Amino acid sequence: xxKEIEITIEKAQEAFVKWRALxxxxxxxxxxxxxxxxxxxKETYGExxxxxxxxxxxxxxxxxxxxxxxxxxxxxxxxxxxxxxxxETRWSETYIVHDPMGVILGVMxxxxxxxxxxxxxxxxxxxxxxxxxxxxxxxPLAAQALESCFLVDGFEQVYFNLTMPGKEVEEVIAHPVVKxxxxxxxxxxxxxxxxxxxSLIKPVLLELGGSNAFIxxxxxxxxxxxxxxxQARFQNTGQSCIAGKRFLVHHSLLEEFSNRLAEEAQKLKQxxxxxxxxxxxxxxxxxxxxxxxxxxxDSVAMGARIVCGGKxxxxxxxxxxxxxxxxxxxxxxxxxxxxxxxxVGFDTLEEAVAMSNDSRFGLGVSxxxxxxxxxxxWIHQLDDGAVFINEMVxxxxxxxxxxxxxxxxxxxxxxxxxxxxxxxxxxxIK
Length: 430
What we know:
The protein is an alpha/beta fold. It has helices at residues 3-19, 24-40, 42-53, 57-82, 115-126, 140-149, 169-174, 187-199, 222-234, 254-267, 286-301, 330-333, 349-357, 372-375, 414-418, and strands spanning 85-86, 93-100, 103-107, 130-134, 159-161, 178-184, 204-207, 212-216, 244-250, 305-308, 312-313, 316-317, 320-323, 340-346, 361-362, 365-368, 387-389, 404-405, 408-409, 422-429. It starts with a helix and ends with a strand.
């Protein structure tokens, strides 16, 4: 391990000893200062995100603003969540306390370079831990800005960047000072981190990929559904784990839905990322665009048909809609991380639910229909970590976020996120 990394880890441990001794109220004061700094610099931070990963500026600023809403949730609810719980027993006192664990490592991705970090770091810090953050190598400006944002007057540094290759992450996990790790990223990265942490009996939280189904039943109004479908698939240029990727549509609406989705996708403004009305940016890296193109071309060779799009130029990928897709094609079986929508028909809800579950992923699913009571029984039949009825899947600080199967382990945000890296200690007094 490089000497500078070792020094940073030691600093994080020294900071933890002091930070854990502060009251929750004092840590909440720290969060308020972080929020003030975040919003005061949202335009600058937004421009950094755009320069790093080519997200349209309006979406970059919106990401920064959303990060502030997460801080609001923990300012308002954090103390209540962290309070101990009394239990009635035969002893005079029995209660549970939530103590911080220590230095926690976060390994974060590039697609939402602020939001992903905040939803890990804010609850982890509020619980009394300190944070080591290994950010994606292709968002250096965001990584620097984040460390600066967490440096606030009146408080010692408790958030530390680690600038190093991904292959060195396992060495950091193995360091005795590091007590847990949270990773948002790819399946291979998640598997490697989980294996290393497991071998050392260290807690791990994983938020990995998704291939969310977007189920459209026969009785919906397409005037209402199509704008939601466009947003669900093409936000952040399709580079979102919770994006609607597989559109499962009742056969009575299949052709009209596909054509209208394609029409709206082609209207999305592209071009200057700094223009506030630009909706589609570039993909973050050319290799990712090539990977998406390969999935598309292989599926077309198997019989899939492109309704619109399909063109690529370096890391620009045209918004694309594909139909005549089977469950054996790569665009159905693999995660399509980019602006590509797959549309498949079904006859019954039972068939749609089976197709939704026919995935190694289980992050989230949306179901649209007018008869809620008809949809409600299917909630427990879906394998995903979230079911949204008449709404696209979104992340919200107030509710747990995470998935099943290869979509990860554990939950971020809400109460679960705040208690992810605490020692739930039982206290008994006779």
